[in-house]
């Protein structure tokens, strides 16, 4: 029997969408806190903003 679990997550500080819910291979929730949005913004961001905005900003800031 499948049990539906309601999970309330925060909103992304960049795009205002809900943060992504991470599940393991059995469907059990293991993470609901999104990603660190620094250096773009303070707070937590969704996966899409992390990949398209935060990580590129971090790479631009690297001294290599």
Textual characterization of the structure:
This protein is an alpha+beta fold and 64 residues long. It has 1 helix and 4 strands. The strands form 2 sheets. Strands 1-2 form a two-stranded antiparallel ribbon. The chain has a two-stranded antiparallel sheet with strand order 3-4. A hairpin with a 7-residue loop joins strand 3 and strand 4 (44-45). The protein is elongated and about 45 Å long. The protein starts with 21 loop residues before the first strand and ends with a helix. The mean pLDDT is 91.
Task: Summarize this structure briefly.
With 64 residues, the protein is α+β, with helices and mostly antiparallel strands. It is built from 1 helix and 4 strands, in the order ββββα.
SSE topology:
Layout: E1 22-23, E2 29-31, E3 35-36, E4 44-45, H1 47-60
Antiparallel strand pairs: 1-2, 3-4
Beta-strand share of residues: 5-15%
Largest beta sheet: what is the strand line-up?
Answer: 1-2
Helix/strand-derived category reads alpha+beta
Which outline best applies? elongated
Give me the Rg, rounded: 14 Å
- Counted by DSSP, the helix tally is 1
Q: Level of helix content? A: 10-25%
Q: In sequence order, what are the helices and strands, one letter per element?
A: EEEEH
Main sheet characteristics = 2 strands, antiparallel
Unreliable stretches, pLDDT < 50, 5 or more residues?
A: none
According to DSSP, the number of beta strands is 4
Taking the alpha carbons of the first and last residues, their distance comes to 53 Å
On the 0-100 scale, what is the average pLDDT? 91
